[in-house]
Structure formats: C-alpha cells, structure tokens
C-alpha cells in the first residue's frame, strides 16, 4: 500500500463503517491494560453505529477478559484470522484451520529438521501442549500435555475426533534457537504449506493454514455482513497486521509499530502506551 495524502496523520473524509484493530501492542498498553480513554472511544463508536472488530493472534481463552471492552455484541477475529469469536456466546464461527494430515506432516517435518522443537496446537476446544514446550504465559489447568503428533492421528481419544479438534494455529518453540534462526529454519521447512506470521512474540513461530491471515478473516466477516474493504479502517503494529492494513480502505500504524507496518500504513498515530488508536478515532467523534 503506497502512502496516501493522510500519511502525516490526517484522517480521511469518509467515515468508516468498521474499525478493525489489533490488540497487543496496538490497542492494549505495554502493561496489558486498556485505558479508560480507549474504552470510552470504543463505546462512542458503537453508539455512532460503527462496528469495532478486534483482530488478534490471541486464542479464545485470552478473550473473555476483554468482554467489557468489546461490549454485549462484540466480535473478534482471532488466531491470526483462523476464526471469529462472539463475545456474547463465547463461541467460534467461520473456523478455517489446518487439515489434520497437513498439520501432522508439518509437525513431523519440523521435528526431523529441527531436533528439540516443541509445539502447541491451538485448537477449537483448547490448547494441546507438547510436554517439552516451555510457555511464557500461564498454562490453563485444563490444557492437555501430550505429544501433539498423536492427537493429529488416530490417538484413540474421542477428543481428537470431531470439530473441536480443528487446529487454528500451530506454535513452535526451541529453547536453544534465537528468533531469527528459528524463523529461518521453520520457513525452509514449511514453504507454502503454512503461513508464518510474526505477532511480536520472541522466538515463537506461529503457523497458520494456507490462506489464513488477519486480512482474510476480517474480509470473510465483512462479506458476511455486507461490508467492503473501503468501509474499514484498520490499526496494527506487527508484520502479521500488514495484510490487514493493506486490505482495508485505510490502514493506520501506531508509533511503536514494526518498520514493515510503518511502511505499509496510510497514516500513523501515537503509540499504544499513549492511546494512539483512541487519539486517532476521537477525530471521528468530535
């Protein structure tokens, strides 16, 4: 997306019908909070008839804490575009995950090429952790810890059959590899069999099924509601946000964004810690 006349931070004249925003590093501050100023802007947008859609790499279990922000009828496109989460019901819709055989082949090939790599499968029914996966986030008490490859084949466990076993995202980590080396080696192995997205998590490779991006997930949701790319303003900070900013009618990067995001955006706003999204959107509500 080439720079527009709004690249110095001016807002376009046409009001959006949808505001689509990333969470961590964009709408959410570095300390994990969402300011009251941001809450107020989101509420006012809803009152003005503008849909606010949260578009995030987060899995479903990290969404309930944002129910107050999202509102009664809130929606999130989650897992880097693999599904839509409805806050009112806690259910997933429009799920687009890996085919089981394809996910199993990826796990096998990555283990053969990168000995010591460990995985998490982010499934519709919750995460499955390799016993050797060291998580930097709290692991849910109900999470399964088992060789993930067994769950992708005939494991004998009824939980591994049916719609709940659909894998929306595969996470790969290696305790002894730095970020750049891990990404390079994973990229060599997966080729075009998966999309490797970078959402800001250090030394954690996030794999989505082919064709699954934040842009694709948001586009599906918009199409289902009679909305077009031109109706959307999108906000982001990391490379996994670039397709969404490029697809939307107007893309905005926060000041703390990755250089690739700053280059792709139509406009810039203040950082996440300075309520950049709220600052930009307040101009709509004056």
From TrEMBL:
<protein>
    <submittedName>
        <fullName>HAD hydrolase family protein</fullName>
    </submittedName>
</protein>
<dbReference type="InterPro" id="IPR036412">
    <property type="entry name" value="HAD-like_sf"/>
</dbReference>
<dbReference type="InterPro" id="IPR023214">
    <property type="entry name" value="HAD_sf"/>
</dbReference>
<dbReference type="GO" id="GO:0016787">
    <property type="term" value="F:hydrolase activity"/>
</dbReference>
<dbReference type="Pfam" id="PF08282">
    <property type="entry name" value="Hydrolase_3"/>
</dbReference>
<keyword id="KW-0378">Hydrolase</keyword>
């Amino acid at each position: 997306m080439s720079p527009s006349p709004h690249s110095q931070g001016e807002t376009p004249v046409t009001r959006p019908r949808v505001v689509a925003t990333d969470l961590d590093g964009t709408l959410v501050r570095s300390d994990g909070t969402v300011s009251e100023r941001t809450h107020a802007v989101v509420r006012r947008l809803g009152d003005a008839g503008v849909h606010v859609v949260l578009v995030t790499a987060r899995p479903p279990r990290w969404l309930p804490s944002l129910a107050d922000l999202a509102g009664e009828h809130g929606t999130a496109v989650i897992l880097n575009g693999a599904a839509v989460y409805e806050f009112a019901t806690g259910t997933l819709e429009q799920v687009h995950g890996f085919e089981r055989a394809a996910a199993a082949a990826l796990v096998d090939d990555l283990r053969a090429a990168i000995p010591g790599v460990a995985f998490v499968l982010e499934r519709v029914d919750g995460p499955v952790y390799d016993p050797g996966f060291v998580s930097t986030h709290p692991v849910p008490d109900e999470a399964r810890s088992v060789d993930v490859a067994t769950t992708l084949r005939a494991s004998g466990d009824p939980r591994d059959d049916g719609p709940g076993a659909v894998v929306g995202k595969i996470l790969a980590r290696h305790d002894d590899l730095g970020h750049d080396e891990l990404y390079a080696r994973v990229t060599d192995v997966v080729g075009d069999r998966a999309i490797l997205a970078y959402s800001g998590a250090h030394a954690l490779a996030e794999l989505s099924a082919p064709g699954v991006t934040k842009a694709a997930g948001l586009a599906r949701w918009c199409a289902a509601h009679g909305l077009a790319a031109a109706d959307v303003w999108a906000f982001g900070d990391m490379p996994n946000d670039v397709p969404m900013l490029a697809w939307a009618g107007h893309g905005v990067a926060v000041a703390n964004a990755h250089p690739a995001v700053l280059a792709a955006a139509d406009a810039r706003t203040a950082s996440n810690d300075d309520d950049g999204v709220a600052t930009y959107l307040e101009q709509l509500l004056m």
